[in-house]
Amino acid sequence: MADAGWPGCSKSLKGVVLDMCGVLYDSGEGDGVALPGSVEAVKKLKASDLQLRFCTNETQATREKFVAKLQRLGFDICVSEVFSPAPAAVAVLKERGLKPHLLVYDGVLPEFDSVDKTNPNCVVIGDAAEKFSYQNLNEAFRVLINLEKPVLFSLGQGRYYKETDGLKLDVGVYMKALEYACDLKAEVIGKPSPMFFQSVLNDMGLQPSETLMIGDDLVNDVGGAQHCGMKGIQVRTGKYRASDEKHPTVTADGTVDNLAQAVDLILGQRGH
């Protein structure tokens, strides 16, 4: 463990928040694959006195379908424990009376069924994968550039993520393209947005100092959590790179080989 403060942190913990892709499993063909020891690690956390939530920037499926996939991989998890950007975006759109043009993966479209999409006055982009064609990006650009007050929502701002066949470009790359073309700043819904982390803390009824985030993305998972006052631990799975441990602006509170090791350290320090 990289951080001497880890033992004290473990004893005062009341809640743990887990990233999903790259921590629990690697996505890919079919349901993807569970990472070694991760199914058992989640079981151990659930059997402990700690509250557990899952915080993901997954935007290729509804939470119901996403959770069903993880259940098939063997994880004990339910929809109410999972926080993802699409439902959070819907709440913001309704609150502000906005009608979105959607550039998202087909699988997540049902999350937006309750939102009026006629004559859009904003754009929402998610990890649209193959849908990020020139034509579709240009269509989103045209909606934004023709608005008097353009509003762009991005369901995360990751640079890349890992699937079983290698790294894939994430939504942040396309968000930056639209920001540049339209000379605007996107509103990020999802990690590392403080509002997104705070919604998870509110659900648990915990303070940031009582909560630990475990993720594979140093900037969005670890840095985002630390910015809110939480501790952030990085696993050496998923999108982890050795260079993360020498990052110029974000230093994890600890770095572990995988989720199983992190959970054993946490519970070991708590006397479980």
TrEMBL record:
It holds the Pfam family Hydrolase_6. Belongs to the HAD-like hydrolase superfamily. Gene3D superfamilies: HAD superfamily/HAD-like (3.40.50.1000). GO terms for molecular function: inorganic diphosphate phosphatase activity; metal ion binding; phosphatase activity. Keywords: Cytoplasm, Hydrolase, Magnesium, Metal-binding, Nucleus. It catalyses: diphosphate + H2O = 2 phosphate + H(+). Its EC number is 3.6.1.1. Signal peptide: none annotated. It is an enzyme of class 3 (hydrolase). It is found in: Cytoplasm; Nucleus. InterPro entries: HAD-like_sf, HAD-SF_hydro_IA, HAD-SF_hydro_IIA, HAD_sf, LHPP/HDHD2. CDD domains: HAD_PPase (cd07509). Phosphatase that hydrolyzes imidodiphosphate, 3-phosphohistidine and 6-phospholysine. Has broad substrate specificity and can also hydrolyze inorganic diphosphate, but with lower efficiency. PANTHER family: 4-NITROPHENYLPHOSPHATASE-RELATED, PHOSPHOLYSINE PHOSPHOHISTIDINE INORGANIC PYROPHOSPHATE PHOSPHATASE. It comes from Echeneis naucrates. Its main location: cytoplasm. Its cofactor is Mg(2+). This is Phospholysine phosphohistidine inorganic pyrophosphate phosphatase. GO terms for cellular component: cytosol; nucleus.
